[in-house]
Amino acid sequence: MALPPTPPDKMSFWEHLQELRVRIVRSLLIVAVVFAFTYAIRFRLWTWAQKPFLEAMARQTGKAVADLQPFAFTDLTEPFFSMMRLSLWAAAFLAAPFLFYQVWAFIRPGLLPKERRLVIPFVVVTSGCFLAGAAFAYTQAFKFLGDILFQEAAKAGLRANLHVSDYLDLFISTTLITGVMFELPVLFFFLAKFRIVTARLMLKYWRHATMAILIFSAFFTPGDVVVTTIFFSVVLLGLYFVSVAVAWFAEPRPRK
């Protein structure tokens, strides 16, 4: 007679490692499947990726977007690997809901039965926040960065001759970092739920949080322009105060 499966809350350390391996393998497989699709449309993705900066360049130079050709390459393999990298990251972004579900499935055994029923809200909210951050980066952050950077170039009388790989570094890092930044309310929801932080504590130390945000923005936001640091600091600070409201909502209330 077969032995009953081990209850999730009684899994050993090695069983947890096995579970982690299964989740990682499944995540890699779904990204690989989506990558087959994104690589097939890689040139459309490239047209979409360069659009915000071309529009910013057109605003600062007074030229039509169709007349701008600022990208060049000096290495024959650069276009190939750049399109592959863009396709891979696009696959990861499209597979975000499945990836967040794998994260939930891994931490689910350590949760209470009533908390395990939050799987659908968790996946929807985390995916929505991440994709909302990526959309904010594409529609607002790139518009802001492009206007600042191309305005400086236009005033200096410089002609654009950009490397595809360098531009993708900026595009991917900005989109990814902004998507992660928008997960801040989700993080503080769980921290407050498990009584690690409280909304009152967050308000008490908001000045310390502001300094930490400024340091983070200075080191991890793309570009070496002070304006970009200030821009992302303001966005993060706004998310911090949104997280205060989320933490207040998530705090367990004492029973009467």
From TrEMBL:
Main subcellular localisation: membrane
Keywords attached to this entry: Cell membrane, Membrane, Protein transport, Translocation, Transmembrane, Transmembrane helix, Transport
Highest taxon, organism lineage: Bacteria
Record flagged with keyword Membrane: yes
Bilayer topology term: Multi-pass membrane protein
Gene Ontology terms: biological process: intracellular protein transmembrane transport; protein transport by the Tat complex
Transmembrane segments: 20-41, 86-107, 119-138, 170-192, 204-220, 226-250
Compartment annotation: Cell membrane; Membrane
KW Protein transport (keyword) present: yes
GO cellular component terms listed in the entry, alphabetical order: TAT protein transport complex
One annotated GO molecular function: proton motive force dependent protein transmembrane transporter activity
Cited function: Part of the twin-arginine translocation (Tat) system that transports large folded proteins containing a characteristic twin-arginine motif in their signal peptide across membranes.
NCBIfam families per record: tatC (TIGR00945)
Protein family membership: Belongs to the TatC family.
Complex and partners: Forms a complex with TatA.
Stated name of the protein: Sec-independent protein translocase protein TatC
Organism encoding this protein: Candidatus Geothrix skivensis
UniProt gene name: tatC
